[in-house]
Amino acid sequence: MMNASGFDRNSTLELLRFSDDLPSLPDRFVKIQNVAQDPDSGAEDLAEVIRSDQATTAMILKFANSPAYNPTHSPIGELSKAIARLGFRETVHIATAMALMYGMILPTGMANIRMFWAHAFAVGQVAGHLAKCVDPAEQYCSHERAFMAGLMHDIGRAALGMRVDFSYFEHETGHLHGEALIQAEEDYYGVNHAEAGMQLMRLWLFPDDLSQAVADHHNPDSPLFLSRICYQANQFVNKHIPERTPFDAIAETAAQALADDPPELSGLAL
Asked: How far apart are CA 186 and CA 30, in angstroms?
């Protein structure tokens, strides 16, 4: 059935599933993930990938010199020292988010792109924290898996903007959250961003649990633990982290919010 916008569910899904012009994951994202998942790789391998991009290098140094990671106010200017201070995994998280921010061509202004990925990074940070709180032994869900699910949870919004409607981020939908966003997307496109995200994740050959977590991240009762983690993290970020918080302030803002108002974990029980 065609709606007033000119989009209908079947045509939207067809555009999302069409793989001949599939937007590719940024090369730097793939390289960072390869380093992160290689047990023989270390900080120098990660630094080599990061050094090829000036913006990411500058952001890693900015994080390392921020109050959250530098309580003694001892500035550093070398990438290797920044990685040592942040830790390998935290550096991977920052660099991964930066690779997506600057490597995916979204049809909107840079201010919207930064806001979109800052939110995604915040949800990833909180999701990783929740996973460690609920499952400290990481028997069911590693905090790395939870971070990636959180980082990618809204990728369906990018999919709708890149594959279906280039003006997606300029509509009111680009600034909505929660159920209001889901309803507006279904009214306008016949498909919401959670379903669109699952389609894109599958085309990118992400593992099934990550694709399903993206599909279910608005469902607090999902049977998938990773989906419930994403839901809770997204709710927490929408409540506690202002929409225009700069990317480099996300880690400190999220840590303070988690300390001031720890999330309820009962709904996440395994």
From this structure: 32
SS3 261: coil
Distance CA 125, CA 230 (A): 10
Kindly state the DSSP code that residue 243 receives in the 8-state scheme.
T
10-41: b (≥16 Cβ within 10 Å) or e: eebbebbeeeeeeeebbebbebbbebbeeeee
Amino acid identity of 269? A
pTM, two decimals, is 0.92
Q: Is 206 in a helix, a strand, or coil?
A: coil
Element (H, E) at 134: helix 110-134
Give the distance, in angstroms, between the CA of residue 21 and the centroid of all CA atoms in the same chain.
Answer: 23
- Ranges of each domain in the chain: 23-104, 110-270
Residue 5 has pLDDT above 60, yes or no: no
The 10s digit of each residue's pLDDT in 181-206 is 999 999 999 999 999 999 999 989 99
Tokens 């991240």, residue located: 217
User: What is the fold of 110-270?
Assistant: Hypothetical protein af1432 (1.10.3210)
Report yes or no: 201 and 236 within 8 Å, Cβ to Cβ. Answer: no
